[in-house]
Amino acid sequence: MAKKNKMKPRELREAQKKARQLKAAEINNNAAPAIAAMPAAEVIAPAAEKKKSSVKAAGMKSILVSENKMYITSFGKGNSAVLEYEVDKVDNNVYNQTQLSSKGSSNIKLCGVNEVNITFSSKHGFESGVEINTSNPTHRSGESSPVRGDMLGLKSELEKRFFGKTFDDNIHIQLIYNILDIEKILAVYVTNIVYALNNMLGEGDDESHDDFMGYLSAQNTYYIFTHPDKSNLSDKVKGNIKKSLSKFNDLLKTKRLGYFGLEEPKTKDKRVSEAYKKRVYHMLAIVGQIRQSVFHDKSNELDEYLYSFIDIIDSEYRDTLDYLVDERFDSINKGFVQGNKVNISLLIDMMKGYEADDIIRLYYDFIVLKSQKNLGFSIKKLREKMLDEYGFRFKDKQYDSVRSKMYKLMDFLLFCNYYRNDVAAGEVLVRKLRFSMTDDEKEWIYADEAEKLWGKFRNDFENIADHMNGDVIKELGKADMDFDEKILDSEKKNASDLLYFSKMIYMLTYFLDGKEINDLLTTLISKFDNIKEFLKIMKSSAVDVECELTAGYKLFNDSQRITNELFIVKNIASMRKPAASAKLTMFRDALTILGIDDKITDDRISEILKLKEKGKGIHGLRNFITNNVIESSRFVYLIKYANAQKIREVAENEKVVMFVLGGIPDTQIERYYKSCVEFPDMNSSLEVKRSELARMIKNISFDDFKNVKQQAKGRENVAKERAKAVIGLYLTVMYLLVKNLVNVNARYVIAIHCLERDFGLYKEIIPELASKKLKNDYRVLSQTLCELCDNRDESPNLFLKKNKRLRKCVEVDINNADSSMTRKYRNCIAHLTVVRELKEYIGDIRTVDSYFSIYHYVMQRCITKREDDTKQEDKIKYEDDLLKNHGYTKDFVKALNSPFGYNIPRFKNLSIEQLFDRNEYLTEK
Question: What is the rounded CA–CA span in Å between residue 309 and residue 331?
């Protein structure tokens, strides 16, 4: 057997570099593959999996159909669509094609169209010159219209709701689907916010607990909220408001709003305190109003509809939104030059081709508006590639204390290169990345670009590094800057620059963590950007179709502006630090989650942490708890969504902890084991390592940390670092458990939202539903649509109409449920009952192997919970199986999900564990 040619590390790096260059050349110029020239490495990586279709990678964005015409678009700059061709059907298999794009803007070439396929080729990228086939969307065997109908049979009703009439095209409905996606994600996040706020009260042990947020309405002013008896409201409504007012005051007393960064003013001035309470009420009432809009069909009530209510309700609400946004801009803008003078001074010294004023404006753009995130590629990734491949010296430990500052300056130079100096190069890079089909191809493209940048910026990077020492930075910090803050007046933003919808979205970010903010804003930006492009195409002279939105959706005429505003919101919004006024409450939660009895008194907490004592070196434990628990975003998340005492009790379940640890990558487990275990045996198996970590989490106790010294040396410092690692692991594992269950619940929140919306739409076309109310029986929509198929074959729903076998299965599942069971299921989803009741039932599960199984076992135990005032015969028919098998019952899942049976794909995905999207589960990376 021939001996393998084992390459030296340097030779291997050079070979890999050559391969990247050749691959990038192939992507850029459609060069003949030359990878064979690469010396054989000992291990060849498997081919990368395709991440996008060849049609998208080649540059085709969409095929829009309007009556007998097709409009083919390609990807332009950013997310813009370029109208490339109009295709008009003349006869059965004869099509006229007219090019609409200019030579300079065209990205694809149309090669041919027949009844079945459309053939085109890309003018750029990896597939350049290669003919690619895609289906002709007007090919409908046996159908009279060239436009495909939707399987739910709701296309016409949606078009009438959003545009006031129906259309024989697929353009309007695609725009509508983007609006519906906005409502879906808002339904999820607002549901979670409402739950978190209710949870902060620390009350309620079942799904029937008082939901004080449910009674808050932006239709009432703060005066009416605090003086309901002086209003003209009904006695019932007044009673509900009084209950909410009492709970609102209780929430303020808990100080837990401090977890959201809401700082209660320390003052004896009642006007200041009352103004704070009024702002908090407005924020909670707006959240409650959004929840009503996305969880109930409000399409006929303009003053309550999601996109219009904020401009119609009392102006005091808009004043609060203005206050919140201006407060944020003021904190950013105030003293920007002085606050960043060290970095600005260094940049002025290095960037000789720029005026100082221009550098300051660009740096404001970079730090505050974060325009680098809108370039279409990652500046950070380019810098990392440059340093990984060429800048080894910059990773030396000597730069650890200034690394963040050094990297920020490097990133700024790269930003200026693409934002100001070489815009065309940035556009070329975006195009290369767009035409890549796999993550590996993207890595090659970044590496190739990094090599070009290194020759250009090497000296600048070394100059930055040479200035990275304490003495230089200290002197620059003391120096005066002769620049007037007014030079930024044209750049600075304030509340008047944003529409109230954008301000409302900013307000929601108060209640979200960093990942949630990014997810929400990224999705909203994408959807508004898509809507903007659809409207642009619809208004173009080539397409010219009617696009007048109905009253409740006029907001989307400003989609271009809102897209730009949401970019700003995304860049200024961040997870807020907990308020100082809530410190005692946070210390209580922190000690409880570490294992101290939650009944501990405030005086005892103060005594343990020496909160009332003064002196040097006596606050080590207080500072340790602050730095490693209270300031952890995972701790804050757990307090928002769970209960400190219950989290500690759940952590004692080794099966559950082992399951969560099983989802953490092996390399991370190795690091946790090494840093958490006092005498680690690194040769032990991963299973043994996970078991040891699970045991540590199970037995975690405050006593393990009470003697830790913050200012420690030698062995004491080793013990402190180990304690920090153990707390980090513990909070991470419990965070992953809770977060994944919240994510699972989100799928069912979306299903409930869609059910409410679709019920309102079907009521317009099915007389049998006209007198029905969904809240009386959530099965009524699926049941009625099935009956129409069975009785008269008149159901507009093609999912049920065309699949008799699956329809019969849905009917069985409907009959296996009852109205009270599905109502309770809906309420449990809306109130995240599974998360709140996790501790009560998770210990009974025999096998913990998926978040889906945890979720549904706990849910089913909640549904079958016996209540003295309710007949139980139908509701608990599956209880024996639950108690006997110690796992969820599959048929019970389908019965509970029967209200979603009218949409068979959604019903199956939510009911069958193997089809549930496991990719949404989080792991620690």
Answer: 29
